[in-house]
Amino acid sequence: MSLTYRAIGWNRQKKIYDTVMVSCLAGYLAVFAGLGFWARPNLTIETLLIRAFGTAGFLLLHVILCIGPLCRLDRRFLPLLYNRRHLGVTMFLLGFAHGVFALVQFHGFGDLNPLVSLLVSNTHWSSLAQFPFQQLGFAALLILFLMAATSHDFWLHTLTPAVWKSLHMGVYVAYGLLVGHVTLGALQSERSPVLAVILGAGLIVVLALHLAAAWRERRLDLWKHAPDVEGFVEVCSVASISHNRARVVSAGGERVAIFRHDGKISALSNVCAHQNGPLGEGKIVDGCVTCPWHGYQYLPDSGTSPPPFHEKVSTFRVKVMDGKVLLHPKGCLPGTPQRPALVAAKPEEQPNDEFYVGYEPQAPGRIARHVRRAVVSVTVVVFAVCLLLLFSQDAQSPSFFEFGTSREFVGIIEENPVPALRVSRPNDKGSYSRYPLVAPGKHGAGGMLRGLHGIQVELRGMLIYRDGLTMVEVLPGTVRLDHSAAASRAEEPEHLGVYTLRGEIVDSKCYFGVMNPGHGKVHRDCAVRCLSGGVPPALLVRHDSGQASVLLLESEGNSIRKLLLRLAGESVSIRGKVVRHGDTLRLLTRAEGIRGSGE
Question: Which of 102, 127, 374, 498 is most buried, by the most CB atoms less than 10 A from its CB?
Fold first, then answer.
């Protein structure tokens, strides 16, 4: 307790607590990103960072949610509860880093504001398979932000404990949203069952601990009492209350803490005015009832905090008859003095009665050992989960983006069917390679090449390639015309016939190498932005042998652009004409030839 709101003062326990927390998180991120880059070298580093921050935050949220019920079941876990808000703020920062990386990766550098893109890129609200999972994560992050921003006691005092507690119960809403975010996102993209097993196990542990704690508390609330003529009810025996400790009972629909101290019996509300902590699990220290959660104190005979503090809790009338404690279930106003009931003094302390609040310089030995064992066990489990998540990620075929390394290209511009550069092969006279061209970010190159069809140019760009598929990202301002060169005639396309092909609509730029994986539901929103910005659409077809073919999609007749934006990232069936143009496969289709997975 303090008189003013000030920056956190780290005592020895806080320093140890936060050092262990930061060290474990730094180790987790280093292992996930570093070992992940070694185990899955074909994943882009942005993807690894998104997954590292996301899994670290989600695992930390599970730890946070387990601390509360563990303290209800075993008070030796209370030292973890004292600094739980540190964990909460850290967990939000991890989620925020995950969200920022994902927002930039999937929604940045496009034709829409990233936040607007997040909200409008996927609107399949009626489809479970294509449900917009990113919006669920965004909603959870907003809730966690409100909780982190109001974590200081200034807001608890300003909002009042009841409002503050209700706001922070939103963590369960956020948890549910994040379970949906993972289930409808990564769980649908990864083929390994390991992620599903880990998610299910975490959910079961959280639910089991909360149900166990609730069942234990429910037995207390079901206890019925018969009142006497004055309205008092018998609640317990004096002998059942340890010296300087309390017995928690339920009376009149409220939990009451009955304390025994210095030959007296006093009764207070069991709810601390600070964060609704359980006063009955606390202890009388220096003549004051001390809450086990954060050390707030109250005088047992009046329910008021000692001067100069002003917190108050309700008091109850008590009397003792024949060694039994009788309580009047109607509480008095907070801070109302009540005369304690007198009993035989019992000055001796109960054996093994260790009590600890986090602001004290050192925890008692038995509690400290228990907490150390718990922290080591959780750390081992978390790092084991980290390794499972790392090695269960789907393997990706090699793809490359020579970011920061530009090359000089000389060739002839083709504006249709997609912007491309036709480059003669030096060792095969009369043959050409065709490189589709794109602009930086999530944009096509049509705007910077308009009117240059059939003209030879020099330009600088960065190569993007995968499985023999090559694309060039043109650096703005580097296209130089060569009017002296004669335009050559392009090869005639080879018509291979009409086929019905099943595959996934992707944006060619990401799939060719800018992002890996550049396909699947997790990548869907990025594909929408790329296609909307003019990046050539493509159909990714996987054969029974496991190999993949990529065909650039073209409209034969009316534009299919809006339809492709709606179906991006989905499994579709497309009927159309397959054409080979040099070393590029194209699929010419109409809107009526495209069928989504649900059609």
Answer: 102
Report CA dihedral (32, 37, 40, 42) to the nearest 10 degrees: 140
What is the token pair recorded at 224?
A: 């019925």
385 and 515 part of one domain: no
Instruction: Give domain status of residue 91, yes or no.
Output: yes
Residues 463, 443: one domain? yes
* 413, 322: one domain: no
- Label each residue of 167-217 as H, E or C: HHCHHHHHHHHHHHHHHHCHHHHCCCCHHHHHHHHHHHHHHHHHHHHHHHH
What is the DSSP track for 285-316?
ETTEEE-TTT--EE-TTT-BPPTT---B--EE
Tens of pLDDT, residues 103-154: 999 999 999 999 999 999 998 888 888 899 999 999 999 999 999 999 887 8
Q: What pLDDT is attached to residue 2?
A: 45
Dump pLDDT digits (tens) for 519-541: 999 999 999 999 999 999 999 99
Range of the domain at 564: 494-596
Read off the pLDDT of residues 225-240 as tens digits, 9 standing for 90 and up: 667 657 888 888 898 8
Beta-carbon contacts of 160 under 8 Å, excluding residues fewer than 6 positions away, are none
351 within some domain: no
Closest CA to 550 of 517, 498, 511, 595: 511
- Look up residue 584 and give its DSSP letter: E
Query: Nearest 5 degrees, angle CA 487-CA 581-CA 524?
Result: 115
| Cα–Cα dist 524/124, whole Å | 12
pTM: 0.88
Average pLDDT over residues 364-382: 90
pLDDT for position 361 = 72
Q: How confident is the model at residue 4 (pLDDT cuts 50, 70, 90)?
A: very low
One-letter amino acid at 67 equals I
From the number of C-beta atoms within 10 Å of its C-beta (0-12, 13-18, 19+), residue 357 rates as buried
Q: Quick one: tokens of 162?
A: 């009841």
Q: Is residue 107 part of a domain?
A: yes
DSSP string, 385-429: HHHHHHHHSPP----EE-TT--EEEEEEEE-SSS-EEEEE-TTST
Neighbour-count burial of 339, counting CB atoms closer than 10 A to its CB (0-12 exposed, 13-18 middle, 19+ buried): exposed
**Band of pLDDT at residue 7, cut at 50, 70 and 90:** very low
The whole-angstrom separation of Cα 188 and Cα 394 is 12
Token representation of residue 449: 């090449």
Backbone angles phi, psi at 449, to 5 degrees: -115, 5
On whether residue 348 sits in a domain, the answer given is no
As given in the structure block, the two tokens for residue 30 are 């280093």
Between the two ends of the chain, the Cα-to-Cα distance in Å is 63
Most confident listed range (239-243, 313-317, 425-429): 313-317
Q: For residue 246, which of 260, 256, 235 has the smallest C-alpha distance?
A: 260
Tell me, what's the pLDDT at 257? 92
